[in-house]
Amino acid sequence: MKIGLVLSGGGARGIAHLGVLKGLLEQGFVFEQIAGTSAGAIAGALYANGYSPDDILKIIEATPFFRHVRPAFTRMGLLRMDKAEDLYRTYLPHDSFEALKIPMHVVATDLMEGVLTVFESGELVRPILASCCLPGIFEPYVINKRQYVDGAVLNNMPVEVVEPKVDFIVGIHCNPFSTQKPITSIKGVLERSLILAVRSKTRERLARCNLLIEPPELSRFDVFDWRRARDLFRVGYQYTQLIKPQLIKTLESVL
């Protein structure tokens, strides 16, 4: 039975994907296909390239990502991501979907056509950056004269991309909704509004996962909490330990 892995976007919270993935691999899960949006595209591509979850965490902790973006000086966004291409090619030097050890699918939003684009062949690094291009923060990313922004605008949980290719889907969603955290700033209002908008489009896709993992403790973290990478990894890993009996039962049923 073929198992697919779907990874949501979620900014820094996406680091929790790695902790969950480590726990799943320890239980014996093997993935035949991976699809990811934004942070999920980064985590998925690096894992599909052969890096372990612990390796990827070390890369994140050692890499000052924001030194590799620059002011946009345009009306399209505050920052540009094109300088980050060289950074990603350090870890993905082949820059090719075909060279990955596991088939990977990256989604981004075509800003002009208003449609979702699935990248799954050819160059790899630029589609990953396009998938992470948060509107209003980053200038739209141009590939083949088309402007792209974050895939989460249209699809933060691209289940349907791998659905025809596998028999069982594991989804990791890193944007749990909580009413416990008070909103005390403009940043908080914007973040909560974004999560609500994205989640309303994601609910039906979450239900299509045969196994959905959504660590509730992630609601305590902001999408910009990059400096808390190890804490986010720990939250993901510890949650998989908590649900280990369910994971064992699930794996027994699909093998």
Automatic annotation (TrEMBL):
Q: Which stretch is the leader sequence?
A: none
Tell me, which GO biological process terms does this entry list? lipid catabolic process
Q: PROSITE patterns attached here? A: PNPLA
- PNPLA domain boundaries: 5-163
Q: Which InterPro entries match?
A: Acyl_Trfase/lysoPLipase, NTE, PNPLA_dom
The short motif DGA/G is annotated over 150-152
One Gene Ontology term of the molecular function aspect: hydrolase activity
Q: Which keywords appear in this protein's UniProt record, sorted alphabetically?
A: Hydrolase, Lipid degradation, Lipid metabolism
**What Pfam families does UniProt report for this protein, alphabetically?**
Patatin
At which positions is motif GXSXG? Answer: 36-40
Highest rank taxon of the organism: Bacteria
Is Cell division tagged as a keyword? no
For the motif GXGXXG, give the residue ranges.
9-14
Family matches, as Gene3D superfamilies: Cytosolic phospholipase A2 catalytic domain
Q: Which residues are responsible for catalysis? A: S38 (nucleophile), D150 (proton acceptor)
Q: What is this protein called?
A: Patatin
